Every structure is written in C-alpha cells, then in structure tokens.
Amino acid sequence: LEIIFIFINLKASDFVSFLLSCWFCIAERFNVVGPDAPLVAEAGEDLVLPCSLQPNISAEGMMVEWLRTDLTDRQVHLYKDYKDTNDDQIKTYRGRTALFKEELKKGNTSLKLSALQPSDEGSYKCLIKSESWYEDFTLRVEINGKDVRITGEDLVLPCFLQPSISAEGGMVEWIRQHETDRQVHLYADYKDRNDNQMESYRGRTALFKEELKKGNASLKLSALQPSDDGAYKCLIRSFGWNDDVTLYVEVKGEKHYNLLMILHICCTNKLSVCNVAIYLTLQTFWHWYNVIKGFSCYFVPFFLKTHFYVYNSIRSSLSHFLLFKNSPHILFLGTGALAS
C-alpha cells in the first residue's frame, strides 16, 4: 500500500523518470570475474591478469582500476573517462601496464603486466565502476625465479617514460643506492659519460640507444656479479623536470650449482711430488692467484686448466688446499682423508 501511495503522489513525468532510473540500475548491474587459482609466472616474462564483466557489457565508459591490496601505494593502472590516467601509479609499474582497449567493449578489463619483477608478487584487485554500480575481484600473482639472478648472465633493468616521449635530449642516470661510489651509467648531451662510473661496472652497462626516442631508458647489465646485488635508481631529467624509479636486483649463485675452477700447481714437498688443487669460485680466482704466488711452489708454464664441476650439496666455497697423490679419488685435507 505504501508503494501505491507513493506512486499516486508522483506526477506522470516523475513516475516515468523513476521507472527509467530503476531500469538502468538493474540493466547496469554486473559481476566482475577472474581466476580462482593464483597466477604463476617467471621473472622477466609478461603476464595477463584476467578480469571481465559478466554479462559481457561494454566497459569503455566505466572506470577500470587495478590496485595492489598489499601495498601502501596501491594504484597499478587506472582507466577513466575513456583514457588511461596513471598520474598516481606506483613507480615500479611505470610503462609496464596496459589494458586491451579493443576488448573493453566486450567487457574484458584484463591487465597486461610486462617484464615481471620479483616485487610484482602479491594481491591485485580489479575494480570496475559505472555511474550506478561497482564490483571488484581480487587475484594473486606469484613470481617464480625471484631468487634466481644467475651470476654471469645478463640482465635488463626496465625503466620507461610515460607518456612515451623521447629521452634522447634528456639526462638518464643509473645509480646504486646506499653506495659511496654511486654511478652505474650516465647518458647526457646525446652520449654516454661514464668518467665517474663505479669501477666494477666498467664495460658492463649499456642503454638501448634506438629505444631512447620511445622513452625507453632501460639499462642492460652484462655478466652479473654477486656485488651487483642491491637497489638501483633510474633518474631522468629534462628541461627542469625530473623523476625516478627504484628497482631491486637479487644476485644468487649459479642456480643451485657452483661453477668451480681448478688451478693446477705442481710443487714438491715431504709428501713427494703431488698436485695441489685449489677449488674456488670464478669471482675469487685472482684473489687466490695472488695468494698462491707467495707459496713455495712453482707454476708449470701455462699449465692452467679450467674445469667446470657441478655440485649441489656443498654451499660454501671450497677454498682449502686439497692434496692428492696419484689417485684422484682420495683427497687429503690436512690429516684427514675425504672420498671424492
């Protein structure tokens, strides 16, 4: 009776408007759906985070926002008023996110995330708002290989301008945070200027020069070393404006294995003629070479052989002297014998 009484007191035009508004409310109701299981991907790869409207109505005129629910700075990507609006985007996602614009009319609001980083692991919310309704869906991303940055391999540290304007006339500087000698790579006045570059990075860094005009300021770091582990800042300056983003690099060992070099020396002592083998990682080769020169042994000229041994059970570097006689199956460490 209450509803009938309200309708009686409404003008005909108001009543029609009321019915139309109710119809649009019902028509615009939708659900947001996505995968139930976590998405698993490898670091460095691209990943599509699925999200869509059900029923498959157009999302072109709606607001589509992707958020990190486990971070203080939350915005991963924002589409609003028919365009991307990423002014408040988390810096580590700059230039790495994109919606499939042609798919929005079909209700597909999936997000493409490029060049996955270990820090991308976490919970993501796909939030969609229309004028009269909103709904969201949360999914989880897991990154495999997040602890594997293999010593000796190359690595690209991603850094992009958004919008994709040219960085050729600007200054691009890569620096190590929390280091006294900070400069990793400097590009200014249309060329590299690495006079103050940290010694350990000499000859191992390069920008993609042809990509600078597209706003790509990524750095290629060759022949990774354990000392490369840490935080890197990509700083870009242009005509009184500057911005930066920080990335984190984790360098582990040779991916569950250790690469061993055996330096064979011939020396004479009370055990008669023996071979002295020093097992060491490649990174400590020259350190041990200099130490060995002080010992009362002599090098057979050019009798240096490189062997590659793979082992999984021993984590620490074998930097002791291992003595063996004719049989290589018995190694003598001090006064104890070890089966090889």
TrEMBL record:
Record's SMART domains? IG, IGv
Which controlled-vocabulary keywords does the entry list?
Disulfide bond, Glycoprotein, Immunoglobulin domain, Membrane, Signal
Where is the protein found, in the record's own terms? Membrane
Q: Does the keyword Oxidoreductase apply?
A: no
Looking up InterPro entries in the UniProt record yields: Ig-like_dom, Ig-like_dom_sf, Ig-like_fold, Ig_sub, Ig_V-set, IgSF_BTN/MOG
One GO cellular component assignment for this chain's record is: external side of plasma membrane
Which ranges carry the Ig-like domain?
Answer: 28-142, 152-252
Question: Could you cite one Gene Ontology molecular function of this protein?
Answer: signaling receptor binding
Q: Does the keyword Signal apply?
A: yes
For the biological process aspect of GO, one term held by this record is:
regulation of cytokine production
Matches recorded under Pfam families: V-set
Q: What is its main location?
A: membrane
**Name of the protein:** Ig-like domain-containing protein
Gene source species: Astyanax mexicanus (Blind cave fish)
